[in-house]
Amino acid sequence: MRIIVPHRGLEAAKTRLAPSLDPSERVMLASQLLQRVLRVAREVTDDVVVISPSRPLAEIVEASGCRLSVQRGMGLNEGLDQARSDALMEGIETLVILHGDLPNLRADDIRTLCGALPDGDGPGVAIAPDRAGTGTNGLALRPPGVIGFRFGVGSFAAHAAEVERAGVPAVAVNRAGLAFDLDTPEDLARWLELGDAA
To answer: What's the pTM?
Structure first.
Protein backbone atom coordinates (compact mmCIF):
# COMPACT_ATOMS: atom_id res chain seq x y z
CA MET A 1 0.00 0.00 0.00
CA ARG A 2 1.16 3.50 -0.81
CA ILE A 3 -0.33 6.74 0.51
CA ILE A 4 -0.17 9.75 -1.80
CA VAL A 5 -0.68 13.26 -0.46
CA PRO A 6 -1.12 15.89 -3.17
CA HIS A 7 -0.05 19.44 -2.26
CA ARG A 8 0.15 22.73 -4.14
CA GLY A 9 3.05 24.02 -2.07
CA LEU A 10 3.06 26.19 1.04
CA GLU A 11 2.97 29.54 -0.77
CA ALA A 12 -0.05 28.50 -2.86
CA ALA A 13 -1.92 26.76 -0.05
CA LYS A 14 -4.83 28.06 1.96
CA THR A 15 -5.43 31.22 -0.11
CA ARG A 16 -9.09 31.13 0.92
CA LEU A 17 -7.94 31.87 4.47
CA ALA A 18 -6.62 35.28 3.41
CA PRO A 19 -9.42 37.13 5.28
CA SER A 20 -8.26 35.49 8.54
CA LEU A 21 -4.52 34.95 8.19
CA ASP A 22 -1.64 36.91 6.67
CA PRO A 23 0.65 35.14 4.14
CA SER A 24 3.24 34.03 6.72
CA GLU A 25 0.51 32.65 8.99
CA ARG A 26 -1.02 30.75 6.06
CA VAL A 27 2.35 29.21 5.19
CA MET A 28 2.85 28.20 8.83
CA LEU A 29 -0.62 26.66 9.05
CA ALA A 30 -0.24 24.79 5.74
CA SER A 31 3.13 23.47 6.93
CA GLN A 32 1.73 22.29 10.27
CA LEU A 33 -1.26 20.61 8.61
CA LEU A 34 0.90 18.79 6.07
CA GLN A 35 3.39 17.64 8.70
CA ARG A 36 0.55 16.27 10.83
CA VAL A 37 -1.03 14.36 7.92
CA LEU A 38 2.36 12.90 6.97
CA ARG A 39 3.11 11.88 10.56
CA VAL A 40 -0.25 10.09 10.84
CA ALA A 41 0.16 8.46 7.41
CA ARG A 42 3.57 7.12 8.46
CA GLU A 43 1.90 5.35 11.41
CA VAL A 44 0.06 3.26 8.82
CA THR A 45 2.75 2.68 6.17
CA ASP A 46 6.37 3.58 5.45
CA ASP A 47 5.44 4.24 1.80
CA VAL A 48 4.17 7.84 1.76
CA VAL A 49 4.66 10.09 -1.27
CA VAL A 50 3.84 13.79 -1.60
CA ILE A 51 3.13 14.90 -5.17
CA SER A 52 3.63 18.63 -5.63
CA PRO A 53 4.93 21.17 -8.15
CA SER A 54 6.80 22.79 -5.24
CA ARG A 55 10.40 21.57 -4.85
CA PRO A 56 10.91 23.50 -1.56
CA LEU A 57 8.45 21.08 0.10
CA ALA A 58 11.24 18.48 0.03
CA GLU A 59 12.62 19.78 3.34
CA ILE A 60 9.34 19.17 5.22
CA VAL A 61 8.50 15.96 3.39
CA GLU A 62 11.88 14.30 3.86
CA ALA A 63 12.07 15.38 7.51
CA SER A 64 8.76 13.51 7.94
CA GLY A 65 10.31 10.34 6.52
CA CYS A 66 8.35 10.59 3.27
CA ARG A 67 9.29 11.15 -0.38
CA LEU A 68 8.55 14.14 -2.60
CA SER A 69 7.65 13.54 -6.23
CA VAL A 70 7.88 16.78 -8.21
CA GLN A 71 4.81 17.24 -10.36
CA ARG A 72 5.57 17.94 -14.02
CA GLY A 73 2.20 19.31 -15.16
CA MET A 74 -0.39 21.51 -13.51
CA GLY A 75 -3.59 20.48 -11.78
CA LEU A 76 -4.50 18.13 -8.94
CA ASN A 77 -5.82 15.25 -11.06
CA GLU A 78 -2.85 15.46 -13.43
CA GLY A 79 -0.44 15.28 -10.50
CA LEU A 80 -2.27 12.28 -9.07
CA ASP A 81 -2.18 10.55 -12.46
CA GLN A 82 1.61 11.05 -12.50
CA ALA A 83 1.95 9.63 -8.97
CA ARG A 84 -0.32 6.71 -9.89
CA SER A 85 1.78 5.89 -12.97
CA ASP A 86 4.87 5.75 -10.74
CA ALA A 87 3.05 3.47 -8.28
CA LEU A 88 1.91 1.11 -11.03
CA MET A 89 5.45 0.87 -12.41
CA GLU A 90 6.67 0.01 -8.92
CA GLY A 91 4.08 -2.77 -8.48
CA ILE A 92 1.92 -1.05 -5.84
CA GLU A 93 -1.41 -2.87 -5.48
CA THR A 94 -3.38 -0.49 -3.24
CA LEU A 95 -3.28 3.29 -3.45
CA VAL A 96 -4.62 5.72 -0.85
CA ILE A 97 -5.07 9.43 -1.59
CA LEU A 98 -5.31 11.83 1.36
CA HIS A 99 -5.49 15.60 1.34
CA GLY A 100 -2.83 17.44 3.32
CA ASP A 101 -5.25 19.66 5.26
CA LEU A 102 -7.00 17.21 7.61
CA PRO A 103 -6.22 18.57 11.09
CA ASN A 104 -8.04 15.82 13.02
CA LEU A 105 -6.84 12.84 10.98
CA ARG A 106 -5.88 9.72 12.94
CA ALA A 107 -4.22 6.48 11.90
CA ASP A 108 -7.44 4.58 12.59
CA ASP A 109 -9.22 6.77 10.02
CA ILE A 110 -6.77 5.63 7.34
CA ARG A 111 -6.99 1.99 8.46
CA THR A 112 -10.79 2.16 8.33
CA LEU A 113 -10.67 3.64 4.82
CA CYS A 114 -8.38 0.83 3.63
CA GLY A 115 -10.36 -1.78 5.56
CA ALA A 116 -13.49 -0.80 3.62
CA LEU A 117 -12.00 -2.30 0.45
CA PRO A 118 -13.34 -5.79 -0.38
CA ASP A 119 -11.73 -8.75 1.40
CA GLY A 120 -9.08 -10.56 -0.60
CA ASP A 121 -7.42 -9.08 -3.65
CA GLY A 122 -10.53 -8.08 -5.60
CA PRO A 123 -10.98 -4.60 -7.05
CA GLY A 124 -12.75 -1.93 -5.07
CA VAL A 125 -12.97 1.71 -4.05
CA ALA A 126 -13.49 3.39 -0.68
CA ILE A 127 -14.39 7.10 -0.72
CA ALA A 128 -14.24 9.45 2.26
CA PRO A 129 -16.50 12.47 1.66
CA ASP A 130 -15.95 15.88 3.21
CA ARG A 131 -18.35 17.24 5.86
CA ALA A 132 -20.67 18.67 3.19
CA GLY A 133 -20.82 15.31 1.41
CA THR A 134 -19.89 16.91 -1.92
CA GLY A 135 -16.08 16.73 -1.93
CA THR A 136 -13.63 13.84 -1.54
CA ASN A 137 -11.02 13.98 1.22
CA GLY A 138 -9.78 10.41 0.94
CA LEU A 139 -9.76 7.60 -1.63
CA ALA A 140 -8.57 4.00 -1.40
CA LEU A 141 -8.15 2.26 -4.75
CA ARG A 142 -7.37 -1.35 -5.60
CA PRO A 143 -5.91 -1.75 -8.11
CA PRO A 144 -4.51 1.81 -8.35
CA GLY A 145 -6.03 2.36 -11.81
CA VAL A 146 -9.53 1.09 -10.98
CA ILE A 147 -11.16 4.54 -11.53
CA GLY A 148 -10.14 7.94 -12.86
CA PHE A 149 -9.39 10.83 -10.51
CA ARG A 150 -12.14 13.47 -10.47
CA PHE A 151 -11.06 15.82 -7.69
CA GLY A 152 -12.56 19.30 -7.88
CA VAL A 153 -16.04 20.74 -7.33
CA GLY A 154 -18.57 17.97 -6.76
CA SER A 155 -15.87 15.31 -6.66
CA PHE A 156 -17.79 12.87 -4.46
CA ALA A 157 -20.54 12.46 -7.06
CA ALA A 158 -17.94 12.44 -9.85
CA HIS A 159 -15.98 9.65 -8.17
CA ALA A 160 -19.22 7.72 -7.53
CA ALA A 161 -20.01 8.00 -11.25
CA GLU A 162 -16.53 6.66 -12.08
CA VAL A 163 -17.18 3.70 -9.77
CA GLU A 164 -20.49 3.00 -11.47
CA ARG A 165 -18.81 3.04 -14.89
CA ALA A 166 -16.10 0.69 -13.64
CA GLY A 167 -18.66 -1.69 -12.13
CA VAL A 168 -16.65 -2.36 -8.97
CA PRO A 169 -17.68 -2.49 -5.30
CA ALA A 170 -17.52 0.86 -3.50
CA VAL A 171 -18.07 2.05 0.05
CA ALA A 172 -18.43 5.55 1.48
CA VAL A 173 -16.41 5.95 4.68
CA ASN A 174 -17.77 8.64 6.99
CA ARG A 175 -15.32 9.51 9.74
CA ALA A 176 -14.80 12.87 11.44
CA GLY A 177 -11.01 12.75 10.97
CA LEU A 178 -11.42 12.32 7.22
CA ALA A 179 -14.43 14.61 6.77
CA PHE A 180 -13.07 17.80 8.31
CA ASP A 181 -10.71 19.73 6.05
CA LEU A 182 -9.48 23.22 6.80
CA ASP A 183 -10.26 25.40 3.78
CA THR A 184 -12.25 28.49 4.70
CA PRO A 185 -12.25 31.12 7.47
CA GLU A 186 -15.36 29.34 8.83
CA ASP A 187 -13.44 26.05 8.97
CA LEU A 188 -10.59 27.76 10.78
CA ALA A 189 -12.93 29.36 13.33
CA ARG A 190 -14.67 26.02 13.91
CA TRP A 191 -11.35 24.22 14.38
CA LEU A 192 -9.99 26.86 16.78
CA GLU A 193 -13.25 26.74 18.76
CA LEU A 194 -13.90 22.99 18.76
CA GLY A 195 -10.51 21.45 18.02
CA ASP A 196 -10.82 17.68 17.79
CA ALA A 197 -14.61 17.95 18.02
CA ALA A 198 -14.74 19.64 14.61
So the answer is: 0.93
